[in-house]
Design brief:
Elements lengths: L1 H19 L45 H7 L6 E4 L5 E6 L3 E8 L5 H9 L6 E3 L2 E6 L5 E7 L5 E8 L12 H14 L5
Antiparallel strand pairs: 1-2, 2-3, 3-7, 4-5, 5-6, 6-7
Length: 191
């Protein structure tokens, strides 16, 4: 019986010493561990391999060229306005469509923050290799937020006009918004 008690006491002592080895040296101070999860650029859905300099074009009415606007059927004079984040935006309207482009270079939040608010925290699309989030999709309209760097993004709001409803290029409003966003990306210089 003494042998059993001695063995149990020795085992309990070893267990306590083993558990003590796992404790932090300073109570309440976390110690680094190895083997934890990390997010690398290859697995980060918001990683932008080639950031763009959205600030380089200060007039949002210059984010689309005249040739691109003609290609879209968005003739007419651009209408400058103000975005919900109090930065200049530009709208083009015709019987075919209405397009608004709103750059965001002042909030410093990037697409990751916007995606948390409107898309369960993940990009829902990709435009020309850049992460994007669709919002407000209906049969005739869609908005696309596109990240151009860790801190900047722009928003394209597309709505089909009365004459554009028969245009097959506008049958998928989000695809049309993405196409326009791709045009904007083409016009942005590298960061």
């Amino acid at each position: 019986m003494n042998t059993t008690r001695t063995t149990l006491t020795a085992a309990a002592g070893m267990l306590i010493l083993g558990l003590a080895g796992c404790a932090n040296s300073t109570p309440g101070v976390p110690e680094p561990t190895t083997g934890g999860e990390t997010t690398s650029a290859a697995t980060d859905p918001f990683h932008i391999e080639q950031p763009k300099n959205l600030k380089a074009i200060s007039d949002p009415c210059q984010l689309l060229t005249q040739q691109q606007l003609q290609e879209l059927g968005a003739g007419g004079e651009p209408k400058p306005g103000e975005s919900q984040w109090k930065q200049s935006e530009c709208t083009w309207q015709s019987q075919q469509l209405t397009v608004t482009v709103s750059p965001d270079t002042i909030q410093g939040q990037g697409l990751r923050y916007t995606a948390k608010i409107v898309a369960d925290g993940e990009p829902t699309a990709e435009v020309s290799g850049y992460p994007a989030v669709h919002v407000g999709a209906t049969s005739g309209s869609c908005g696309t937020y596109v990240g151009t760097s860790d801190t900047e993004l722009f928003y394209v709001d597309f709505s089909v006009g009365t004459d554009g409803r028969s245009n097959p290029e506008f049958s998928d409003a989000c695809a049309a918004a993405d196409r326009i966003a791709g045009m904007v990306i083409e016009n942005l210089p590298p960061a």
